């Protein structure tokens, strides 16, 4: 029983410790912000006592000058004595100021240190996350390359986007007004994963009912993305997502494109939305409707490449 209690207690302490470590950045940033605000409040309160310290110092200095200017005490109190007393008064006044503002200053320093420490922890975690993601991305690319070499690009595309053939009947009207039933076979895509997106109603806020307008919009945005990539040297996927009416993602903060034709052999050095006309299951019925699949040709994680590209 005692061993079981010890085990449970050890697990509980372990969970608490892990939770504290996991949320260290949030705890530090919250503590830092609260500390900065409290430090400002303490400084304001301390300022209300400044006039009292200055009045006391002025009174002491005035006493020294009165004694120094008193001819009856010229033999007992010299200018050298006055200088010593004034020095002591100034030291005393300075010490009172230090004591007055010390709590707010110390609290402010600790609070700022807490915020900086939070930023360092987040930075280390982001670097580790980017490194881990780069490893996974590289392994996945090698896997896809082996798949393409054995089964071809068509099979790779089918598996990646869950493409499958679907057959449905539609009514066709000829020029004479005669209607006939025709069977149509199309490629239907599953819900896109990875970085791909459907450009359709309910998926993008920029989508319009006019298909020609949608294609014109996508091509113009693709051109804009390439211009930005070339002018700046890098582009994150989230920047493209936001302009196309998609919500940003965590992965979109890491992956993107690098423009460096001389030293970026792994990347394409251009942005391609991979605009593809497909079908997807209709939201209103059991049928299928035309849609646009966007398959972005991202280079992968670029956080570490951005700094290297800037050198």
Task: List the topology elements.
Blueprint: H1 2-22, H2 24-47, H3 50-69, H4 79-151, H5 153-161, E1 164-173, E2 179-188, E3 197-199, H6 211-232, E4 234-236, H7 237-243, E5 255-258, E6 276-281, E7 288-294, E8 300-301, H8 303-310
Antiparallel strand pairs: 1-2, 3-7, 4-5, 5-8, 6-7
Helix pairs in contact: 2-4, 3-4, 4-5
Task: Jot down its keywords.
311 residues; alpha+beta; 2 domains; three-stranded antiparallel sheet; 8 helices; elongated
Report on this structure.
The protein contains eight helices and eight strands. It has 311 residues and is an alpha+beta fold. It has two domains: 124 residues, no CATH class; 120 residues, no CATH class. The strands form three sheets. Strands 3-7-6 form a three-stranded antiparallel β-sheet, with no helix packed on it. Strands 4-5-8 form a three-stranded antiparallel β-sheet, with helices on both faces. A hairpin with a 6-residue loop joins strand 6 and strand 7. The mean pLDDT is 82.
